[in-house]
Amino acid sequence: MSLASYAVIGLLLITATIMGTTLLLVGRFVRPSRPTPAKLQPYESGVPDVNPPRARFTPRFYLVALLFVIFDVEAIFLYPWAVAFDALALYGYVQAALFVGLLLVGLLYEWKKGALEWV
Amino acid sequence: MAIEVLIFYLLAGVAIAAAAGVVLARNPVHSAVSLVLSFINVAAIYVVLRAEFLAVAQIIVYTGAIIVLVLFVLMLVQQQDLPEFHGGRPLRRAVGFLLGLALLAEVAAAILTRSLRGAPGSWTPEAVAAVGGNIQAIGRELYSAYMLPIQATALLLLAATIGALFLARPELVEERLAVARRLFTISLAHPRGVDTLQPVAELPAPQDGQLKPAGGDRSLVMARTAEEFTEQPAWGESRR
Question: Which fold is adopted by the domain B1-86?
């Protein structure tokens, strides 16, 4: 069990990089390039866009993303506990229960506050 | 051994180059992509160091979740609202330089202590292999000796939850949404009550977020059919 076992992943990365760049480069030199203003439009045969391309999004999305990060970290912390469950016995169980319980308080709080509702 | 050193230098080099790209790129999205590259290279360095769990955690938390947050900020904030990246205010530059210096000093101190006083703790590679691998060792250590840090982490995450809720308070969001609706109600055809169709080409060019209503100070509505045009509330209000 050494670094050699990761050689396959390294090989995959190298192959993917070489293939990707080769294909793009071949395309770059082989394809004809005769641009006209109409061809360069986002929609060649549509109504020109009057909306600003960067529309605003609800901050609600950000709240969901932020909560996702928090519970993502919680899940990461629970992996080692789950793997070492047998060795840790009751003490580890209490520890993890306390850990999850504290975050559960936060979850209940935001539930109560209506942050999980999508109007 | 030599090949590991070689791989490390390759990964570290790409990570540093990508980190420089984060700072130097003018487009914030390019910065974010550079950051992904840097994070992935750091994860690969963890693999070289046989810290597989840390590598996976790095991928899941940083390249998965943190980058999502960064990109969300870019999506939520209008381009012109972003602070000027390379404006070069002297005070800001000095503070940034000092903060970077402080971080460098911290990392240097950590590395120096580690190399002067030897590996902390009793976990040698053999001991880790004996208990059955990386995650086993982390689990045993984390949930026994590091009881207090674990619970402190839980408190920190709890504080982050409440902070997130406070920052994106639903009531405030509603107010902001109402303002945004008023600003961003746009007509593809013609304003309410005006019967002469205005060709699209003659509409004022959008100034990225600063659209002027074409029909004076009346709000404009988006309509696809004639029926929709008469008594349709502004966009978004009809959904509630």
Answer: Four Helix Bundle (Hemerythrin (Met), subunit A) (1.20.120)
